[in-house]
């Protein structure tokens, strides 16, 4: 997988709300884009950097953190970050028995 080259300058984006007609909504669904009329006002909900994904007011006076390291987007260094807890699927007619430790997977027992 190619690595991305991030610049130290932020690349600003704006999350927007645009009111659409039914026709515009259908076109947006199919083409992932709409044409706006000249002079139409667009409300911006949030301004943030495309590279580091942080809001403008938090990082406006700092260089972009993604250029140095973007490990904070992945949850931290491997071995330190928390592991995800996976939900156990409910299988009819079975009950999950307690496992001995964190390393042992839970065992399924048939409920009578």
Topology:
Elements: E1 12-17, H1 22-31, E2 43-49, H2 56-59, E3 94-97, E4 107-110
Antiparallel strand pairs: 1-2, 3-4
Please tell me how large the radius of gyration is. 24 Å
Number of continuous helical runs: 2
Largest sheet: 2 strands, antiparallel
Give the low-confidence spans. none
The percentage of residues in β strands lies in 15-25%
Distance between the termini: 51 Å
The portion of residues assigned to helices is: 10-25%
Shape: flat
* Strand ordering within the main sheet: 1-2
How many strands? 4
Structural class: alpha+beta
Mean pLDDT comes to 77
The helix/strand order is EHEHEE
Would you mind describing this structure in some detail?
The structure is a single chain. This protein has 112 residues and is of the alpha+beta class. The chain has a domain at 1-77. The chain has 2 helices and 4 strands; from the N terminus they run E-H-E-H-E-E. It has helices at residues 22-31, 56-59, and strands spanning 12-17, 43-49, 94-97, 107-110. The strands form 2 sheets. The chain has a two-stranded antiparallel ribbon with strand order 1-2. Strands 3-4 form a two-stranded antiparallel ribbon. It is flat. The model has no long low-confidence stretch (mean pLDDT 77).
